[in-house]
Amino acid sequence: MKHDKRRFLKGSKIVPKPIPRSISITQLVDEYFQAYNAGRLREAAQLLTKKMLSRDTTVGMSITGALTPAGLGGSCIVPLIKAGFVDWIVSTGANLYHDTHFAIGHSLHRGSPFADDRLLRQQGIIRIYDIVFDYDVLLSTDTFFKKLLRLPEFQTDLGTAELHYRLGKYVAERERVLGIRHSSVLATAYRCGVPIYTSSPGDSSIGMNIAEAALDGCLVRIDVLLDVNETAAIVLDAKRRGGKSGVLILGGGSPKNFVLQTEPQIQEVLGINEKGHDYFLQVTDARPDTGGLSGATPGEAVTWGKVDPDRLPDAVVAYVDSTIALPLLTSYVLAKAKPRPLKRLYDRREALIGGLYNEYMKAKKKKSKTKSQ
User: Fold this and answer.
1) How far apart are CA 339 and CA 7, in angstroms?
2) 222-227: long-range pairs with CB below 8 Å, 24+
3) What is the pLDDT of residues 261-315, one digit of tens each?
4) pLDDT-based confidence at 367, cuts 50/70/90?
5) pLDDT tens figures, 2-12
6) Which residues contact 10 (CB under 8 A, 6 or more apart)?
7) Is the CB of residue 126 less than 8 Å from the CB of residue 134?
8) Cα(179)–Cα(192) distance, rounded to whole angstroms?
């Protein structure tokens, strides 16, 4: 009986000591984030630093919510990419579009969520909760993308990783010409060879501008099926090389499911023997009981084959606003984890697809042989 009691009391003691006047983020998280969602955020930071950022783990990040208009692209996501802590990304198109505003010389401003929106409309001001900017920012950014989408290199079928890589080249050049020190997500991913996918490419202003280009006779087309296979190939390759796969999920929605569905694509659809992602870290303010927590909890994800059941203890969900959690996580891991060599998965896309195809054909032959016996 005493042995059973010790099993439940093995966690660190909660010591209610006063917070010092000057304290580092790492000390604050490790020593003062004791319980509830502060405790989950501490566990998330420690999981990310101690396990997910090992050299043999391939980390996929999903991004939802209006994070880049709040400056979190350049302040958090860019440093994580540069440090080699994020190997591939699934983002809403909106986050990539709004991050481009900064890269081409526009400004967004702090505002009030209680402004009179009718007056803002009359004055040509756009509001994203408590962020405001001039309507001309949208028109200028649209013009930037319209010009790019009419270039010869875009007149073909493209997966979204290739689309964003080519766009990122021009965003990076615009930053250089303007002398902008902030580096956008698209530009940084281009430089670092990090593929960025958009699970719903029509659901953003970038997609809207592609649709306009199509009406104007341009030949740019998005191959969403290529995205499905490329992302699955990234995860399969990580496992077949003897490594692990981790997912860092900001919010939920379609990008979360797109990151996680890689494993059902491998196992259920392609028939390849696999077990699921090894590490699961999500920051969300949604609830599973209302149907709003897309992909639901790590435990539920196990039933789909999305998460390896043997690795379920290495899964953390922190029910915290991403705009609070992401700066804390970024500061924590940059202080505690050594930079990793860039995997440059974008450069290996064809080889990755080849590996997936070979395993698919083997699994298909095996299944056919079993049926014939």
Assistant:
1) 36
2) 222/157, 222/158, 222/159, 222/160, 222/163, 223/157, 223/158, 223/159, 224/159, 224/160, 226/159, 227/159, 227/160, 227/161, 227/197, 227/198, 227/199, 227/258
3) 999 999 999 999 999 999 999 999 887 877 766 557 888 888 888 888 888 788 9
4) confident
5) 567 888 888 88
6) none
7) yes
8) 19
Query: What span, in angstroms and rounded, lies between the C-alpha atoms of 56 and 268?
Result: 25
Q: CATH class for domain 45-365?
A: alpha beta
Q: Catalytic one among 239, 256, 306, 343?
A: 306
Given this model, what pLDDT does residue 300 score? 83
What residue segments make up the domains of the chain, in order of their start? 45-365
Distance CA 110, CA 179 (A): 23
Largest pairwise CA distance in the chain: 76
DSSP string, 174-189: HHHHHT--S--HHHHH
Q: What is the mean pLDDT of residues 327-343?
A: 98
The model's confidence at residue 373, banded by pLDDT at 50, 70 and 90, is low
Mark whether 306 is an active-site residue.
Answer: yes
Answer for the pair 64, 92: CB distance below 8 angstroms, yes or no.
yes
